[in-house]
User: Fold these one by one.
Assistant:
Number 1:
Amino acid sequence: MEMREETARRRLRYCVVLAAFAVLFVALALLNIGVGSVSVGVREILGILFRGEGGETARGIIWKVRLPRAAAGVLLGGALSLSGFLLQTFFNNPIAGPYVLGISSGAKLTVAILMVLALSRYRSVGSAAMIAAAFAGAMLSMGFVLLMARAVRRSSMLIVSGVMIGYICSAVTDFIVAFADDASIVNLHNWSRGSFSGASWEDVRVMAVVVLAASTAVFLLSKPIGAYQLGESYAQNMGVNIRAFRVVLVLLSSVLSACVTAFAGPISFVGIAVPHLVRSFLKTSRPLLVVPVCFLGGAIFCLGCDLAARTLFAPMELSISSVTAVVGAPVVIGIMLRKKVKV
């Protein structure tokens, strides 16, 4: 009887959290589409999106600027959140994330190299080339982190190693920028600040294919991830090939974080804060329940931060990474205080 009541309470909690997230998602999506230098009301937005109504200026702003930007925020925010969830599962560390471990910085380095080399010869760089370069950099940084994880056992040393890798990659990136031509420097500066602005429908299509495919793979791996969370020995007894599974976790987390870095630049703290908040709201770590809400939570987090970045000091736009850091850093501090992470 008690087990049935507990199960019912868990289901109710999950439904309430999911419903609250859905309402918040819709509200933030409408605000991101409607708020700006030209304000568009909710009725007009719905008319433009579903009935083709509205003025030509409003239609152009929504379809060509704000809607693809919002779609990019949803996809890349969800990708960052899932990447952080996978890394926290892999390292069994609540403050592991693509930015803290230097993975985003490694992706930033290789994308910067590609942009400097390519923009000196061509006017633009293809989406596939950007993602490939970011993935190579992410895998390179992840390789160093894995080597350090073997050499050191303490949680603090692993995090410090990731931070050092991030500093090294950022320093090398600065050297590259110092020898780049003026046009490349402008492009690199705008991209390295982190932003969803400038996203086109072509970019959204590419990131949708990559992010949704990787996210679906993560969801399908919910059962082995749940077994892995209970320990490698337990997972192995449940028939999980630990070596192959760990490789898949690394590849999926790297693909997700690389896609974000390629299109929006480095964005901090989303991968740490959102998975923790989702688990706190749901009161469970079951991947089958956490993964979908984690993706939705990342989308909400980035939509809210992007809205703040472009409206707080309009017409000046803040870096999205600055806003996510202001919101996410206190969450990380809270994790360390509440969980008492051993350092």
Number 2:
Amino acid sequence: MSKLSTERITFAYEDSTVLEDLSVAMPEGRITSIIGPNGCGKSTLLGSMARLLKPRTGSVHLDGEVIANLATREVAKRLGVLPQGPHVPEGLTTRELVSQGRYPHQSFLRQWSRSDERAVARALEITGVDGFADRALDTLSGGQRQRAWIAMALAQQTDTLLLDEPTTYLDMAHQLEVLELLARLNREEGQTAVMVLHDLNSAARYSHQMIALCEGRVYAAGSPHEVMTSHMLGDVFGVKADIFYDPRNGSPQCLPYELLGRTS
């Protein structure tokens, strides 16, 4: 079953078309990674699905409904969004950030409640940030900050998380920390996740589905074994690469060794 999908969306900045007639579906309860070279439309696709960007034509569907027809608060109850490089107000603590995830559930008649408190406490615990809940975010490591942002999205109690390059600017250990957290949330909580990733090997290792974009269109979509091929790497990224398989989980991994059109 598809939780989130697009139907023939086209998106353009002035006269520059970024996405063209693009239809994709994000399976419910699965992790999907969107991959592709710089400028191919990965973040634009994610932003369109998050209703942060409005396609010129076509539509985005959430739980079978056209997302443009839903109230903003209703979308926020269903989708948790982690943008790339989110700005952190100075002095904000981890707990205060995570508490902001409850705002979609508040109204003039419904103020902060025990259920909000429980949701925040659970999000802090699940992501492992409860130990520094009262520390300022700007004192945390990159991996800890990313976990705090994910905790805020979890506090919204949405079924789906959209993450734009959640491992960018993180070192290897912190990248692993964030991806292992997302895998655990999916495995134990059934969380649907859609993320833009530059690291193809991580995408293949942690995703059930990969979507490769090329010049604003879907080049390939399917399981990592279906998408991570030498042909895709040549056509989409312009590199020659060997494909091998992770001895731990069997996921396809790539080893680029030459740019197409060049010789060593």
Number 3:
Amino acid sequence: MAEAEHNWKFAQCFGDKGDSEDITEADIISTVEFDHTGDYLATGDKGGRVVLFERNESKKGCEYKFHTEFQSHEPEFDYLKSLEIEEKINKIKWCKRQNAAHFLLSTNDKTIKLWKVFEKSLKVVAENNLSDGIRPQVNSSPLRLPKLTHHDTIIAAVPRKVYANAHAYHINSISINSDGETYLSADDLRINLWNLDISDQSFNIVDIKPVNMEELTEVITAAEFHPCHCNLFMYSSSKGTIKLSDMRASALCDQHAKMFEEEEDPSSKSFFSEIISSISDVKFSKDGRYILSRDYLTLKIWDINMDSKPVKTINIHDHLRNKLCDLYENDCIFDKFECTFSGDGKSLLTGSYNNYFHIYDREGKTDVTLQADKSAFKAKRIGSAKNKMLTARAKNGKKEDVNVDTIDFNKKILHASWHPNENSIAVAATNNLFIFT
């Protein structure tokens, strides 16, 4: 990788720029997603809101401005199970754009919605028969029809479809198929296939629910359609496996699947082995050749044609191996870090603690560590964002030592999205959205 490719810099931040520590839970960003062009960007938060940003064409470089905001989900109550259903947005996926309107799917734990976002012209009555003092006379004076003139343009968001009552467990993933007509939704035990146009029925394509729930040994953690082949999709599990399934093979795809799994070294087995091997996210590269998976301590790259072991394993949190007991007690060991490929598939991105996130090349030779932190504003005012960037180059395969005692485990980068066509990334840090280019 050329030196120039390390020149990441902080570009923008949306959100509360003050140093207020009293962040409300509802404002915490829970998902980030660029659309297929990269000209639009969506975030969802724990308060059930979706905020859209659009590229600011008047500015050079990758800069965004606020586009619109709408309330996507409200808190609900499941009376059958006496459970409160949070309004938190788990995932947003953009549909490929076909006309002037945008369509996007958003989901909380139970209900998926298809939103149409479009420009709407507001019109006002400009003139009518009574406007100039003329009283209409039926035979002598013609009746004038009221005229409407354009007053303003607003961005409207309306729910076009609501896909409900198909999941008994928490929805963790939605993925739109390359055919543009279908999408999948995955919860802890099942994956359903939907037609975007039909909201009252779905097909169950994976069901790992045992007859006796006491025999439950794993849950589904993420699922995604192959970017090119509309019959293929993959899903990951809490057991550290990834299954690649073909919908043409069988109605239920969990039996006929190619399994990607790395055998664990028995000598390193511990109480925490199963927790830290649980995969929190999986992504295909744009060409569908590689799979990226993230577990608690590592990032793995798999070749779709080689299921025995990953082609590359990158240790992200090696320095936390001795801290697993503390991380179990403060629940951090269950944090679900996402991962993503760059548009060209040559780079990888995933988050860490202290609001750090890492950008690696596919060979794992370079590690650029950046911090999505409010001090970036101050750094920008000084005129250099470079002091916010810690290029932790791999030295003989060993990284610099990290002082574990100084890590702030409340600050973590769980959600990020990579621009589809260029080196720009959007990163969620608590209630702020950071853009780096």
Number 4:
Amino acid sequence: MQAIPVIVVFDVGKTNKKLFVFDEQYRIVLERTARFTEITDEDGDACENLESLTQSVYDSLHEVFDRKDFRIKAVNVSAYGASLVYVDEHGKPLAPLYNYLKQYPAALQQGLYNKYGGQDEFLRQTASPALGSLNSGLQLYRLKAEQPAVFNAMQYALHLPQYISSLISGKLCSDITSIGCHTALWDFDQQAYHAWVKEEGLLGKLAPMLPSNKELPGRYGKHTFMAGTGLHDSSAALIPYLLQFPEPFVLISTGTWCISLNPFNDVPLSKEELAQDCLCYLSYEGRPVKASRLFAGNEHEQQVKRIAAHFSQHTLHYRSIPYDARIMAALKPGVFERRDLHAFSSDVEAYHQLVLDIAVQQYHSTQLVLKDRPVKRIFVDGGFGKNEIYMHLLASMFPDMEVYAATIPQATALGAALALHAAWNSQPLPEGIIELKRYQTGKQITLY
């Protein structure tokens, strides 16, 4: 059997750590999944088991390079953001991989804001809502204040995608998609590190920044290949859309959080937008991506449980309920968690009401990134893209736009593979890697 050219992608989520192997047509030819039990840091707070994750990367490399049916041309990484690994000059971690949900000292955070123009202006310039440890730059600031010995001993603070990349390439670097994601490190007005980063002595602790599509020489045993710098997962998931659709669009990426991403909106965030949970990412090309967030997946999960319990149904029943225009015509939007379920004649009616209430919230959230931008297409991927009721409603709420459910197998990992296309793949970019289903406008929904 002749070995086929492939790219290997490590796709590291908070829960699942996955490995994918793609062929030149970007078909998945191997997939592996692992989970690790969390450990605790010195304060007793739960955190990633960095040692197990590191060993898993090496074990996975050993497995794939040992196969005779693959000719590995490249390796890349996509991983969750807002997490820093503090390494010495040899790339060895010096501290735990602290959880981005770890409680942040309020006085330390407010003191930083006050020192650099006040909270509102600081957040506006860095396009970062005040999220405590989720602003990874503040994690580094805290380390300097609370653990100066570790701060002084470390060579660099690497975001998690770049740490994993360093295990593969041996190169310590930073990447714009990780630096630009609600870290409070980046000044979106100046398109450079914010002044506070240098003034507080953090700049020298950030590794040199390399382009997101930069290929680095890698070696594993006798094997040579090209390695990527690693990408923040939200930015990686956008890459297939950016490559396939040059005309302006908005992507609503749905899951626990439903995030509306507009890569064609570079208008700086306003104070009002920040207050409504808007933020900015940076694309793999370094362009601002305005985003708004809605905790809709979590709300859907909780309220489905409530409906199922009330009507003595199983929660799986609600995965495939078809859209009923007759039921929908009698409903009006509101806040579902405040609704009395006794007011509904059936669980199907209650579920239509839940999805209507969520879809109206989604409409308002998405409008925040659409403002004054010439967008004609909306793509919805993830769980809600498979929800017929949700998709019919969204099409009705945006009657002047083309609304599509988009299906991409493993979009985050695929994006990381596509970022290195020129470095490993001799074939042209394939068409049709995104499967689309258009939803036509029915009766327009009246929004209250």
